[in-house]
């Protein structure tokens, strides 16, 4: 039985582009994609993101997602992307990813400044862990990482958020 992609809704979601004091972006490697557990040069990398719970607004959701996925919400919101960005899953993931109930996601992206210490970032506070490794990446280098089919979204969001990719206070 094939699933009619057009009949499926988009899942409401938030994305967090977390900048440190040097203007670098936190990128984390997914545990459910090929390359996880291997060298840092392998795997699929992304910013923290996740669904918006019923009764939750996007601002609340992005802070909750930070806590769930990276173990800390030591951050302040600097800005948000002006529109929602929707993407479709690749055909081979329809009916499998996102519980099989969605054709893709519609995302509200936020730029945040990390106010904690690197030691506050803990990938083991939520099980199963979504990420097995994280790193601070200069904004210009994000395009060199494997972000999978989400590359157009990262490029679009970074155009808007590039102003935050400089040292805090600069």
From TrEMBL:
One of its GO terms (molecular function) is guanosine-3',5'-bis(diphosphate) 3'-diphosphatase activity. Coiled coil: none annotated. Its cofactor is a divalent metal cation; Mn(2+); Mg(2+). One of its GO terms (biological process) is ribose phosphate metabolic process. The keyword Oxidoreductase does not apply. Its EC number is 3.6.1.-. SUPFAM superfamilies: Nudix. It comes from the Bacteria. It is an enzyme of class 3 (hydrolase). A motif (Nudix box) lies at residues 50-71. The keyword Lipid biosynthesis does not apply. Keywords: Hydrolase. Residues 9-159 form the Nudix hydrolase domain. Belongs to the Nudix hydrolase family. RppH subfamily. Accelerates the degradation of transcripts by removing pyrophosphate from the 5'-end of triphosphorylated RNA, leading to a more labile monophosphorylated state that can stimulate subsequent ribonuclease cleavage. PANTHER family: NUDIX HYDROLASE 26, CHLOROPLASTIC (PTHR11839:SF22), UDP/ADP-SUGAR PYROPHOSPHATASE (PTHR11839). HAMAP family: Nudix_RppH. This is RNA pyrophosphohydrolase. The lineage of its organism: Bacteria, Pseudomonadati, Pseudomonadota, Alphaproteobacteria, Acetobacterales.
């Amino acid at each position: 039985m094939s699933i009619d992609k057009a009949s499926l809704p988009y899942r409401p979601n938030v994305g967090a582009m977390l900048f440190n004091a040097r203007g670098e972006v936190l990128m984390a490697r997914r545990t459910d994609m090929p390359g996880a557990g291997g060298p840092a040069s392998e795997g699929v990398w992304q910013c923290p993101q996740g669904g918006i719970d019923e009764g939750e607004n996007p601002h609340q959701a992005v802070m909750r997602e930070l806590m769930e996925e990276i173990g800390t919400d030591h951050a302040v919101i600097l800005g948000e992307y002006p529109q929602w960005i929707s993407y479709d899953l690749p055909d081979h993931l329809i009916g499998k990813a996102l519980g099989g109930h969605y054709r893709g996601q519609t995302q509200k992206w936020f730029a945040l400044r990390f106010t904690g210490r690197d030691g506050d970032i803990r990938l083991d506070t939520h099980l199963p862990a979504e990420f097995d490794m994280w790193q601070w990446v200069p904004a210009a280098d994000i395009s060199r990482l494997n972000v999978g089919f989400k590359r157009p979204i990262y490029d679009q969001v970074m155009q808007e958020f590039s102003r935050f990719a400089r040292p805090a206070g600069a």
